[in-house]
Amino acid sequence: MLAVAPVALTVQLAKAVGQAVAMDDVPAAVAATNSLVAEHGLVDRVEVVVGELPAAAARAGPFDLIWASRVVHHLADEAAGVRALALLERLDGTLEESDRRALARLTDPSDPADLGRRDDMFALGVQSIHVGSAPAPPGL
Protein backbone atom coordinates (compact mmCIF):
# COMPACT_ATOMS: atom_id res chain seq x y z
CA MET A 1 0.00 0.00 0.00
CA LEU A 2 1.17 3.52 -0.74
CA ALA A 3 0.90 6.62 1.43
CA VAL A 4 0.59 9.76 -0.64
CA ALA A 5 1.33 13.34 0.24
CA PRO A 6 0.72 15.77 -1.37
CA VAL A 7 -2.75 14.71 -2.38
CA ALA A 8 -2.42 16.11 -5.93
CA LEU A 9 -0.68 12.90 -7.06
CA THR A 10 -3.20 10.57 -5.45
CA VAL A 11 -5.10 9.58 -8.59
CA GLN A 12 -2.03 8.87 -10.71
CA LEU A 13 -0.25 6.93 -7.99
CA ALA A 14 -3.35 4.96 -6.97
CA LYS A 15 -3.80 3.87 -10.58
CA ALA A 16 -0.14 2.83 -10.71
CA VAL A 17 0.12 0.92 -7.43
CA GLY A 18 -3.41 -0.25 -6.62
CA GLN A 19 -4.14 0.82 -3.04
CA ALA A 20 -3.25 4.23 -1.65
CA VAL A 21 -3.80 6.44 1.37
CA ALA A 22 -3.80 10.20 0.79
CA MET A 23 -3.29 12.44 3.80
CA ASP A 24 -3.39 16.13 4.50
CA ASP A 25 -4.05 18.27 7.56
CA VAL A 26 -6.07 20.85 5.61
CA PRO A 27 -9.77 19.87 5.53
CA ALA A 28 -10.35 21.69 2.21
CA ALA A 29 -7.55 19.69 0.57
CA VAL A 30 -9.00 16.47 1.97
CA ALA A 31 -12.44 17.37 0.60
CA ALA A 32 -10.96 18.14 -2.82
CA THR A 33 -9.09 14.84 -2.80
CA ASN A 34 -12.23 12.93 -1.86
CA SER A 35 -14.03 14.56 -4.80
CA LEU A 36 -11.19 13.78 -7.20
CA VAL A 37 -10.99 10.18 -6.02
CA ALA A 38 -14.74 9.74 -6.50
CA GLU A 39 -14.62 11.43 -9.92
CA HIS A 40 -12.03 8.89 -11.08
CA GLY A 41 -13.85 5.90 -9.61
CA LEU A 42 -11.11 5.11 -7.10
CA VAL A 43 -13.11 5.20 -3.86
CA ASP A 44 -12.45 1.49 -3.28
CA ARG A 45 -8.70 1.95 -3.84
CA VAL A 46 -7.95 5.22 -2.02
CA GLU A 47 -8.42 6.11 1.64
CA VAL A 48 -8.24 9.82 2.42
CA VAL A 49 -7.02 10.69 5.93
CA VAL A 50 -7.04 14.00 7.78
CA GLY A 51 -3.87 14.38 9.80
CA GLU A 52 -0.30 15.63 10.03
CA LEU A 53 2.77 13.68 9.04
CA PRO A 54 4.31 11.58 10.44
CA ALA A 55 1.61 10.76 13.02
CA ALA A 56 -1.13 10.24 10.41
CA ALA A 57 1.10 7.83 8.48
CA ALA A 58 1.93 5.92 11.66
CA ARG A 59 -1.79 5.48 12.40
CA ALA A 60 -2.71 4.49 8.83
CA GLY A 61 0.36 2.34 7.96
CA PRO A 62 2.48 0.36 7.53
CA PHE A 63 3.19 1.17 3.90
CA ASP A 64 5.37 -0.28 1.18
CA LEU A 65 6.14 3.20 -0.14
CA ILE A 66 5.64 6.73 1.18
CA TRP A 67 5.64 9.60 -1.31
CA ALA A 68 6.12 12.83 0.64
CA SER A 69 7.31 15.24 -2.02
CA ARG A 70 7.11 18.93 -1.12
CA VAL A 71 5.70 18.33 2.35
CA VAL A 72 8.67 17.38 4.53
CA HIS A 73 9.83 21.00 4.77
CA HIS A 74 6.54 21.80 6.52
CA LEU A 75 7.28 19.44 9.42
CA ALA A 76 8.34 21.01 12.72
CA ASP A 77 11.33 18.64 12.90
CA GLU A 78 12.13 17.53 9.36
CA ALA A 79 14.83 15.00 10.29
CA ALA A 80 12.71 13.36 12.98
CA GLY A 81 9.75 13.25 10.59
CA VAL A 82 11.72 11.52 7.85
CA ARG A 83 13.16 9.05 10.36
CA ALA A 84 9.64 8.29 11.59
CA LEU A 85 8.46 7.69 8.01
CA ALA A 86 11.50 5.63 6.96
CA LEU A 87 10.54 2.44 8.92
CA LEU A 88 13.97 0.79 8.51
CA GLU A 89 12.70 -2.34 10.26
CA ARG A 90 10.45 -2.97 7.24
CA LEU A 91 13.59 -3.91 5.32
CA ASP A 92 14.16 -7.00 7.49
CA GLY A 93 14.72 -9.95 5.19
CA THR A 94 15.17 -7.80 2.08
CA LEU A 95 18.72 -6.57 2.75
CA GLU A 96 21.89 -8.35 3.76
CA GLU A 97 22.76 -7.67 7.40
CA SER A 98 25.85 -5.68 6.39
CA ASP A 99 23.68 -3.45 4.15
CA ARG A 100 21.17 -2.95 6.97
CA ARG A 101 23.95 -1.90 9.34
CA ALA A 102 25.39 0.49 6.72
CA LEU A 103 21.98 2.04 6.06
CA ALA A 104 21.34 2.42 9.80
CA ARG A 105 24.66 4.22 10.22
CA LEU A 106 24.04 6.50 7.23
CA THR A 107 20.68 7.61 8.67
CA ASP A 108 21.64 7.93 12.35
CA PRO A 109 22.37 11.58 13.25
CA SER A 110 24.50 10.49 16.21
CA ASP A 111 26.78 8.39 13.99
CA PRO A 112 29.81 10.07 12.37
CA ALA A 113 28.86 8.32 9.09
CA ASP A 114 25.42 10.05 9.00
CA LEU A 115 24.69 11.50 5.56
CA GLY A 116 23.70 14.79 7.18
CA ARG A 117 27.28 15.26 8.42
CA ARG A 118 28.94 14.79 5.05
CA ASP A 119 30.25 17.74 3.09
CA ASP A 120 30.39 15.78 -0.17
CA MET A 121 26.63 15.13 -0.34
CA PHE A 122 24.06 17.42 -1.90
CA ALA A 123 20.59 17.21 -3.34
CA LEU A 124 19.75 18.61 -6.73
CA GLY A 125 16.18 19.19 -7.78
CA VAL A 126 14.61 20.46 -10.94
CA GLN A 127 11.16 21.88 -11.44
CA SER A 128 9.69 22.43 -14.88
CA ILE A 129 6.88 24.84 -15.58
CA HIS A 130 5.13 24.65 -18.95
CA VAL A 131 3.26 27.71 -20.17
CA GLY A 132 1.03 28.03 -23.18
CA SER A 133 -1.56 30.32 -24.66
CA ALA A 134 -4.58 29.82 -26.87
CA PRO A 135 -4.36 31.20 -30.39
CA ALA A 136 -6.01 34.56 -30.93
CA PRO A 137 -9.47 34.37 -32.48
CA PRO A 138 -9.50 35.14 -36.23
CA GLY A 139 -9.79 38.79 -37.07
CA LEU A 140 -8.08 40.19 -33.96
Largest sheet geometry:
4 strands, parallel
What form results from the Cα inertia axes?
extended
User: What is the strand arrangement across the widest sheet?
Assistant: 3-2-1-4
**DSSP, total strands:** 4
Radius of gyration over C-alpha positions, nearest whole angstrom:
19 Å
Beta-strand residue fraction:
5-15%
Q: Roughly what percent helix?
A: 25-40%
Order of SSEs: EHEHEHEHH
The overall pLDDT, averaged over residues, is 79
Number of DSSP helical runs: 5
- Class per helix and strand makeup: alpha/beta
Secondary structure elements and their pairing?
Elements: E1 2-5, H1 10-17, E2 20-24, H2 27-39, E3 46-50, H3 55-60, E4 65-68, H4 78-86, H5 97-106
Parallel strand pairs: 1-2, 1-4, 2-3
Structure, briefly:
The protein is α/β, with parallel strands linked by helices.
How would you characterize this protein structure?
The chain has 140 residues and is of the alpha/beta class. It has two domains: 2-86, no CATH class; 88-126, no CATH class. It has five helices and four strands. Helix 2 links the parallel strand 2 and strand 3. It starts with a strand and ends in a 34-residue tail after the last helix.
Characteristics:
alpha/beta; 5 helices; 2 domains; single chain; four-stranded parallel sheet; 140 residues
